[in-house]
């Protein structure tokens, strides 16, 4: 066991020897009663969840480690939502390109540009959903995404219509 003092406080590092699935070291946030009873060479039980060593146990005394998967579900949910936005847009663009009656010279129609911008905005709007996921859970995070998309869609549609109206203005009074 080593002790490291840093800006955030003291971190205790416990060196472990065991099988290939057990990490060589785990960081503990405090000494607590657990480390005071521990001697070099004592056998401990390490609770693993996926690749994370979440707790160390000896004789019924449990010590949490700093190795937790916190934030991973929120990040994976946000990444999935962003990939969903790009995937739906790519599938729709592919269908439009396959149907020759909608394309001119193999180019995407003009309405695809604002849809592409919306897909990009939808991917960026997964970032605030991570905060929602931290406060609530990944299910609420996924359900909050459409709430962020509605005003963004309205704003992008408004800006696109305003830009189209600006392009239709005639110059010279003809």
How are the elements arranged and paired?
Layout: E1 2-5, E2 10-15, E3 25-28, H1 32-37, E4 45-49, E5 52-58, E6 61-64, H2 72-98, H3 112-124, H4 126-135, H5 138-167
Antiparallel strand pairs: 1-2, 2-3, 4-5, 5-6
Helix pairs in contact: 2-3, 2-4, 2-5, 3-5, 4-5
Structure characterization notes:
The longest helix has 30 residues. The chain is elongated. It is built from 5 helices and 6 strands; from the N terminus they run βββαβββαααα. The strands form 2 sheets. It has a 3-stranded antiparallel beta sheet, with no helix packed on it. Helix 2 runs antiparallel to helix 3, helix 2 crosses helix 5 and helix 3 packs antiparallel against helix 5. The chain has 2 domains: 63 residues, no CATH class; 96 residues, no CATH class. The mean pLDDT is 77. Strand 5 and strand 6 form a beta hairpin. With 174 residues, it is an alpha+beta fold.
Q: Which geometry do the CA atoms define?
A: elongated
Order of helices and strands: EEEHEEEHHHH
Quaternary structure annotation: single chain
Radius of gyration computed on alpha carbons: 27 Å
Helix content, binned percent? 40-55%
The overall pLDDT average reads 77
Give a count of the beta strands, DSSP E runs of length 2 or more.
6
Give the class from helix and strand content and strand pairing. alpha+beta
Tell me the distance between the termini.
86 Å
β-strand amount: 15-25%
Domain count, please report it. Answer: 2
Q: Give the strand line-up of the largest sheet.
A: 1-2-3
Q: Report the sheet with the most strands, covering strand number, pairing sense and barrel closure.
A: 3 strands, antiparallel
Number of helices: 5
User: Which spans have pLDDT < 50 for at least 5 consecutive residues?
Assistant: none
